[in-house]
Design brief:
241 residues; alpha/beta; 5-stranded parallel beta sheet; two-stranded antiparallel sheet; 6 helices; 13% strand
């Protein structure tokens, strides 16, 4: 019997020594083009995660296996992949690796890329409902296959009594055996970062609305068209360049 990750109540750390356990950390990437201040807040988030994780390890068990979304190789190839994918998180992961933990493959390259491609297509929008339904169905199938692969990776690579660290954006659709206890690590710095992002988005949206209002105002010369600028402010959102 399996239970969905993230829906299990946090157990008492002292009660699970000898059981398998996963320390789950929300994945937050560095973002090219993000406003000034994002990098500092991101660094603060990963430092807070490191501190909370160390405290939890002291009570419930040292990390022996490390899993990271998008990483499809173990060992040195996986470390190289991780440095390119999420370097801000590398210091806390490397500390565990130096302490004897191993980096394990979590994702499958082909499935991961397939989900990304179908997701990008779905965001474009379609005139044909048939095409939209086809893309959505393909996305759902690929996502289900990927979640099944991640579930198997966690189950087969986390040994008896071991503690694993998994850094992932969402656990939706991932299941794990009942004997694996889940600890969610979400320090206050995560909420602070999310609130800061929301404020940045609101500020940029307000800039766009003011610019659009200025362009819509009557021009000084009768019969002249308001000039459009290709350098107008763009709305920054997480993930945009």
């Amino acid at each position: 019997m399996t239970e969905e990750l993230g829906k299990i109540e946090k157990p008492e750390a002292g009660d699970i020594i000898g059981q398998r356990k996963l320390y789950v950390v929300p994945l937050v990437y560095s973002l090219p083009g993000a406003p000034d201040g994002y990098g500092q807040r991101l660094e603060a988030y990963w430092k807070a995660v490191d501190q909370h994780l160390s405290s939890l390890e002291a009570k419930a068990g040292i990390v022996k296996k490390v899993f990271h979304e998008g990483i499809s190789y173990g060992g040195d190839p996986g470390i190289d992949q991780l440095k390119q994918t999420n370097f801000p998180a590398f210091p806390l992961i490397n500390t565990r690796l130096q302490g004897g933990a191993s980096l394990e493959a979590l994702d499958d390259d082909e499935l991961f890329m397939e989900v990304l491609d179908w997701g990008r297509m779905a965001q474009v929008g379609f005139n044909s409902q048939k095409v939209a339904d086809t893309v959505q169905e393909a996305y759902n199938v690929a996502t289900e296959a990927r979640m099944s692969h991640i579930t198997t990776s966690l189950d087969t690579k986390l040994g008896p009594g071991e503690a694993g660290l998994v850094i992932i954006s969402s656990l939706r659709g991932v299941v794990t055996p009942k004997d694996v206890e889940i600890f969610n690590i979400m320090p206050p710095e995560l909420d602070q970062l999310n609130r800061w992002i929301e404020e940045q988005v609101r500020m940029r949206q307000a800039e766009i609305e003011r610019a659009q209002a200025g362009q819509a105002a009557p021009s000084a010369g009768a019969g002249t068209e308001p000039q459009q600028s290709d350098d107008g402010p763009g709305l920054w959102t997480p993930g945009s360049a």
